[in-house]
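S1.2 Input.
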Amino acid sequence: MLRNIDVDLLRSFVTIAELRSFTRAAAVLFRSQSTVSTQIRRLEELAGQVLLQRSPHEVLLTRAGEQFLGYARRIVALHDEALDVINAQSVSGRVRLAVMDDYATIVLPETLARFARSHPEVELEVTTGFTRDLLNSLGEEFDLVLATQKAGDGRGEVLRKEQTAWACSDRVAFSLEEPLQLALLKAPNMFREWALEALNEAGLRWRILFSSSSIGAVEAIAVSGVALTVVKAGTARPGLQLLGAEHGLPALPASEIALHLAPGRPSAAIAALSAFLAEALSDGAPLP
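S1.3 Output.
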């Protein structure tokens, strides 16, 4: 029996999966909650699987839903891209991109320059900050958020894996002298939390010597030789040496870089930058 799935059903499913809420998804899609619920029931009937697990506080993907989500995203994206091509829309307008400080200053300049040359009518507005803060403003202040998150987080479009590592100046020989002098990003910050939790679990004493909201400032202090820090191996600044278990330091969680798109149908400019970043930063592509 031939089964066709309406793109509107897929769009509702993707939006709910991103927002983890029927209520918020309905608001973004400008539909009633009952309409969205009916769409999901119809989609599950067509799929022959339960895709979403409902609870009073949150909506989660089932195993089948996790497998289905990637296909749904691609179908919706291709549908929207086809409409844009048919309508011969020129790619113009403003895109509000939020990104971590290290990627904004080290990884993205050349990538965004290439995008600007190929899309001269698009205005890029880039904001830097901590992932947690940036994601809280996705859809309100930002159209796209390029985020660092724990590997396997399950949110956004994962572009590449990152090695999270301890680091200190390459001008000094590291020694495990307690209390360990630390240079970390200001709380609340994921890398800071990982570092302190790992040291506490390992029974190592530590002291915060320096903290800042700037990744560059934290790494600069570490390069000076007075403190230990935590970095992404792919963006660690020159002058740092990476450290690990062989130096007596505890393991840190793996991280990943994911692209988060604001709910709803993106403009042609937003879709163009999203696709451009996904290709430029994919795991197979070397960082600039």
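S1.4 Remarks. DSSP finds nine helices and twelve strands in the chain.
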